[in-house]
Specification:
Largest sheet: 9 strands, mixed
Number of domains: 2
Structural class: alpha/beta
CATH superfamily of the largest domain: Spore Coat Polysaccharide Biosynthesis Protein SpsA, Chain A
Shape: globular
CATH architecture of the largest domain: Alpha-Beta Complex
Helix content: 40-55%
Low-confidence stretches: none
CATH topology of the largest domain: Spore Coat Polysaccharide Biosynthesis Protein SpsA, Chain A
Number of strands: 9
Strand content: 15-25%
């Protein structure tokens, strides 16, 4: 089984050299590394070229391309994934650090389970200098035992449709997934798109051990931080209609992709049900506060607050939020 890495960069010279160096300290070396630079204007490309020479000297196949014009985060990953050729593909950001046994640990899981299509791990959260923040990625994401059980017990699709638990930098998947996932749609973040499609076409698993240091700094394209009590309280009143509209539109994109690749049955029905739930919540948010009670009540009776949201907490948000 061949394993490869797909890394995307953009003006990442501050941390890029450290990230790239951890590819070469793996207990199981990758067979292929694909790096796509999104028209960086700093020294990223020079670092990539220097690294490519070192990796090729270790008999690793390296494909390094520099985009002439910016494609954006999702576009760059889509272009890079098209160049991946190995059986297992590892996603990589430009500012983290892989633990030495990451490739070996995840590759062994795929080799042991032919049905496994997507795998992701916890991560140690560190600050800009690499100092441990004191809690892990799954803790910051508040991954619940119910969600873990859903993944283990065969209901992963509903879990990942509700919200993405997989961080790209801590994920790997079988290349066969790209047959249905490419091209990546602009409306979706690449890791969320890959995870939900994996849940609809095969098995997903979670590794509870941290296999990377996930760096949190001011320049993160996508970061994560543990919420405070104050943030939780303020969240009850935050306007949500625009977010809900975008989420419903994203689900429509997923339904179209399902139709294009011939996926039918319960996954499509579940996606449509969640889209309808979000659309109903948009209507509720457009009403005066005093008129929302009946709308929330009707939606509560469908059971969709519990199936696609956080149950009573989501319903209360719809009663309290400003828009």
């Amino acid at each position: 089984m061949k394993v490869g890495v797909v890394a995307c960069t953009y003006n990442g010279e501050a941390y890029l050299a450290e990230q790239l160096s951890t590819f070469l300290t793996q207990s199981r070396m990758p067979d292929e590394i694909v790096i796509s630079d999104d028209a960086s204007t700093d020294g990223s490309w020079e670092l990539i070229q220097a690294f490519a020479s070192k990796a090729r000297a270790r008999k690793i196949r390296v494909t390094a391309v520099r985009q002439p014009d910016r494609l954006g985060y999702v576009g760059n990953f889509s272009r890079a994934l098209e160049m991946a050729t190995t059986d297992i593909v590892f996603l990589c950001d430009q500012d983290d650090a892989w633990h030495p046994d990451k490739v070996a640990t995840m590759a062994a899981a795929f080799e042991a389970d032919p049905a496994l299509i997507f795998l992701h791990s916890d991560a140690r959260l560190v600050d800009a200098s690499g100092t441990d923040i004191g809690h892990g990625l799954f803790e910051a994401l508040e991954v619940s035992e119910d969600e873990r059980s859903g993944v283990r017990d065969g209901d992963a699709f509903t879990v990942y449709l509700r919200r993405n638990l997989a961080t790209g930098a801590a994920s790997a998947f079988r290349r066969s997934l790209l047959d249905v996932a490419l091209p990546l749609p602009a409306a979706w973040i690449h890791d969320a798109w890959l995870a939900v499609l994996a849940a609809g076409t095969g098995r997903i698993a979670i590794i509870d051990d941290p296999l990377i240091d996930y760096r949190q700094h001011g320049g993160n394209q996508i970061g994560v931080a543990r919420r405070t009590r104050g943030q939780r309280f303020a969240d009850m009143f935050r306007a949500r209609n625009e977010t809900l509209r975008k989420d419903a539109a994203r689900l429509e994109v997923l339904i179209v992709r399902f139709e294009e690749v011939g996926i039918k049955g319960p996954f499509v029905a579940t996606t449509r049900a969640m889209r309808d739930h979000l659309t109903a919540r948009v209507r509720i948010g457009g009403q005066p506060l005093w008129r929302r009670i009946s709308g929330v009540g009707r939606e509560w009776l469908t059971g969709r607050y519990g199936r696609f949201g956080t149950g009573a907490r989501s319903a209360i948000r719809d009663l309290l939020r400003i828009g």
